[in-house]
Amino acid sequence: MESIELQQVLPRVFESERIPVSDIWLTSARFLREERYLVEAASGGGKSSMCAYIFGSRTDYSGRILFDGEDTRGFDMARWQEIRRRHLAYLPQELSLFPELTAWENVQLKNRLTRYASDRMIAEWFGQLGIDSRRDTPAGRMSVGQQQRVAIIRSICQPFDFILLDEPVSHLDEQNNRIAAELIAGEAYRQGAGIISTSVGNHILIDHTSRLKL
Q1: Predicted confidence (pLDDT) at residue 19 exceeds the cutoff of 80
Q2: Proportion of the chain in helix, strand, coil states, percent, rounded to 5
Q3: Which among 179, 156, 170, 171 is positioned nearest to 200, based on CA atoms?
Q4: Surface-to-core class of residue 100, CB atoms within 10 Å of its CB (0-12 exposed, 13-18 middle, 19+ buried)
Q5: pLDDT band at 201 (very low <50, low <70, confident <90, very high)
Q6: What is d(CA 88, CA 65) in angstroms, rounded to the nearest whole number?
Q7: CB–CB of 93/166 below 8 Å?
Q8: d(Cα 91, Cα 152) in Å, to the nearest integer?
Q9: Is the pTM of this model over 0.85?
Q10: Looking at 88-181, which runs of residues are DSSP E strands?
Q11: What is the dihedral of CA 131, 186, 2, 85, to 10 degrees?
Q12: How is residue 141 annotated by DSSP?
């Protein structure tokens, strides 16, 4: 996948409201592979909705979303499954970890589907992010910041052309932010992938090519 384009997209919940000038809504916004984008928004501006629309987990919008010029509304479930397994990685703001599973099990649950990362590679990522001693701890017993780091590792356990990061470092201090940024940017660079991250303030410390406003 080389490009993602939003054409006149608007969340249906916003249709009866006056929408401020935006680089995303009711315009044409194009994301290119290998570029790095930061989408900034006030709380409630729709950044999580935008990510969910691109990922195909929500369809409550008007307008069109195109992958390499093809309208995603025509994709069936099998096509979406292939896209999510091979082309589009996603770190949702709510993290979506299974609280009863350990940190390691949460990551392996996805990695078994993609067969992407070796156990050694995953263990190295746990060490880099400072949570190697917590790998056998149920996610529900970890701090939110620790859970966020587990979710970051899970998100890169696959091949991808783009990675969507919705508030990826909202619970991390600057040091852990930088480590997470280096890990994600390094993996994206290795795969020649694009990065689309969102923020309401504490953004991931990646050198972004473009900054967009919601």
Answers
A1: no
A2: 40, 25, 40
A3: 170
A4: exposed
A5: confident
A6: 14
A7: yes
A8: 7
A9: yes
A10: 88-91, 162-166
A11: -30
A12: G
